[in-house]
Amino acid sequence: MKIFNFFLFVLFSFGTFAQTSLTKITPQLKDVLNSANSTQEQLVWVFFNDKGDNIESFYADPVSVVSQKSLDRREKVLPADALIKNSDLPVNPGYIVQVEHFGFNLKQKSRWFNGISGYATKSEIGLIAQLPIVKSLDIVYKFKRDYPVEDDESSDIKTDELNKPNGINSFDYGPSFTQVNQINVPAVHDLGFYGQGITICSMDAGFNNLAHEVFDSMNIIAKWDFVDGDPDVSQGGSHGTETLSTIGGFKEGELIGPAFGSDFILARTEDIYSETPVEEDNWIAALEWADSIGVDVTTTSLGYLDFDPPFQSYTWQDMDGNTARITIAADLAVGLGIVVVNSAGNAGYNPNHNTLGAPADGDSVIAVGAVTASGQRSSFSSVGPTVDGRIKPDLMAMGSSVFVASPYNTHEYTLSSGTSFSCPLLAGAAALILSVDHSLTPMEVLNLLRQTASKSNNPDNLMGWGIINTLDAINLIPVPVELTMFRGDYIKGKVKLEWSTATETNNYGFEVQKRYKNTSFAKIGFVAGNGTTANRINYSFTDKNIQAGKIFYRLKQLDFNGDFEYSNEILVDASVLNDFQLYQNYPNPFNPSTVIKYSVPEQSRIKISLYDIIGNEIKSLYDGVQQAGLYQITLNAEDLPSGIYFVSMRADNFSKAIKITLLK
C-alpha cells in the first residue's frame, strides 16, 4: 500500500494532475511547469472563488477597508451607498493559510483580483489546485523596464533658453523652465495652484537620494518597498529620484516640478538587480495600497519587452486594453476615481504594429509620449494604435533632455530622456487641474487635456492629441463662483486674508480654513456670500490667533444647496516675518531692472541703498518708516554701466547686503 501511494504522489507531482486541477491552471502556467524540474519554484498567482463568509461587517464599516479620503474620492464616480464593492474586501486570511499549508511562500495579496502571489514548486501547485476554494492559477508576468534612453536630441535645448523665462513668473524655474513652460505650467502657478490638496503616488525603482535639496519642502506621507517588503524605498537604484524630482521637486533657480504643492506616496515596485525587474504583482499591490490611502493621481513608467523562454511576457498583440493584468488593474483604479498616468514606452516607431507597453494600452489610462524642447516627437517615443484600433499615446510632454535632480549628489542636477519623464510632467499637470476642481473625474481630466492639446483636431498614433496646455485645460473648467484673487498678508501679528470674485451663482458663503505644516485644515471663520451676482465682490477676514511658522489658508465656498468647492491654498510665512530679511534679487543677473524683496517684522525706519563694488553709495532706494509686512522695490539700472553692485538694508540693529550683477 505504501509503495502504491508513493507511486500516485510521484505521478501527480510530475505533470499528471487530476483533471479538475488541470482546468484551474492556465495554459501559460502549464507551459512553464512542463519545462520546470520538480524542485524549481515558480512565481504564480492563486485566485479564489469568493471572499468567504462574514463579510457584511466590512460593508457596515467602509473605513475598515479603505481610508475616508479614498471614500471621498470614490464619491465622484460611485453611488454614495455603494462606495465599496466585493472587490475591495480583503482576501480571506483563512484561504491564505490553507494555501500556505502546502508550502506556498506568500509574496503579495490582491483585493481587486481576489488572489495572492507567491512561490511554489510543481508538486505544491498541483496540491493547491485541488483546493475547492481555489478558482485558478496563473503565472505572474514579468517585464523589463523602460529606463531613460540615450538620444541625440539634447542639442535641441540651448543654455540661454533653459535659463531665461519668457516674461515674469511667480518663481524662478532655472533650467527646468523649458519643460514646464512647454505645457503652460508657470502660468498656472501664477494663479496660485501648485497641486495643493492632491495626493500623488509615484511607483518606480529606488528613490535613492531623497536628501537632495529639491525635496526639502516635499510632503511625503507614505513609503513602501514592495520588492523587499519594508518602508525603506532608497534601495533599488536611482530612477525614482529623477522622476520624483520631475513632478514635485522645488528649488528656485534650479528645478520646479508642476505639482510641488501636492502630498506624495512613494512605492518601490521594481528590482533593478533582477533580469526581470518589473513583476506585475508588485505594481498591482502598490496601486491597491495607494487607493486605500486615498491617492488622486498615479505616475509610473512601466513597459514590456519580449523575453526568451522560460520567462513569460505580454507581446504587442496583447495591447488591446483587456488582456494584461496590470492594464485591467489600472482601469479598475480609474473606475474608483484615480487618474492613472503611464509612460507610453521607449520602443520607438514600428510601421507594422504598436510599440506600447502595458498598462498604457488601457482605455482609461493616460498614456504619455515624449517630445523634444521644440515640440517634435522624440524618436524613441512609442506609438499606437492598440490592437483594437484605439489611438495611443493619448498626450505628449517633454521627454528629451529633461532637467532632473542628480541621484548622486544633494545639490547637483542632470539631464535624462525617456517617456519616463514626460509621464510625471503630465501627471503633475493633472494634479494641478484637480487642485482647481477636486470633483473632476479621471475621464473629465483626460477630456480637458485632450480638448486643449496641440493636436486636438487631428489626433494620430504618433502624438495622440498632442502636447498638453495646462492653463487652457483649467480655463475650460466651469466654476459657479469665479474667484479672481486670494491673498494673505502678515501685519502686526495678524494675518489679513483678502479675496475677490468676478461672478457668483448660488453662493451661500465662504468657510475660512487654516493649517500649520503637518496638520489638517480646520475652520476658523465664516464670511457670508452674495448669492448670485455678476458684479465684482471683495471679501476680507482677519486671523488674530497666530503662531510663528508657515501658515496655509484655503476657502471652502458653499452653495445654498450644500454643494461646496475648495479654493487653492495660499501660504503666509509668519516665521520669516518675525525677523528682518533682505532677499536675493530676481532676476539676477539682470538688464535693466530687477526686483528686491524684504520683510519688516514691526514698525521700523528702513534704509535701502545701492553701492558700487568699491563701496560708494550710488543711490538711495528707500529711506523711511514702514509698518510690519513684506515689501519689494524695483531697481531700474538703465543709467548704470554693467558690473557688480551691492544692495544694503539697515534697520535698528539689522544690517545685510546682497550682491547683484548688471549685464548689458
Explained architecture:
By secondary structure, this protein is of the alpha+beta class. It folds into four domains: 2-51 and 90-140, Alpha-Beta Plaits; 159-475, Rossmann fold; 482-573, Sandwich (Immunoglobulin-like), CATH 2.60.40; 579-662, Immunoglobulin-like. Helices cover 20% and strands 30% of the residues. The chain is built from 16 helices and 31 strands. A hairpin with a 4-residue loop joins strand 22 (550-559) and strand 23. Helix 11 runs parallel beside helix 14 (419-436) and helix 12 runs parallel beside helix 13. Mean pLDDT is 87; it is low at 1-16, 150-162 and 306-310.
SSE inventory with pairings:
Blueprint: H1 2-13, H2 19-22, H3 27-34, E1 42-48, H4 56-60, H5 68-74, H6 93-100, E2 105-110, E3 115-120, H7 122-129, E4 134-139, E5 142-143, H8 159-163, H9 177-181, H10 186-190, E6 199-204, E7 219-225, H11 239-248, E8 250-251, E9 255-256, E10 263-268, E11 278-279, H12 280-293, E12 297-300, H13 325-334, E13 339-343, E14 366-371, E15 395-398, E16 402-405, E17 413-416, H14 419-436, H15 442-451, H16 470-475, E18 482-491, E19 494-516, E20 522-533, E21 537-543, E22 550-559, E23 564-566, E24 570-573, E25 581-582, E26 593-600, E27 604-611, E28 617-626, E29 629-636, E30 643-651, E31 654-662
Parallel strand pairs: 6-10, 6-12, 7-10, 12-13, 13-14, 14-15
Antiparallel strand pairs: 1-3, 1-4, 2-3, 5-11, 8-9, 16-17, 18-19, 19-20, 19-21, 19-22, 22-23, 22-24, 25-26, 26-29, 27-28, 27-30, 30-31
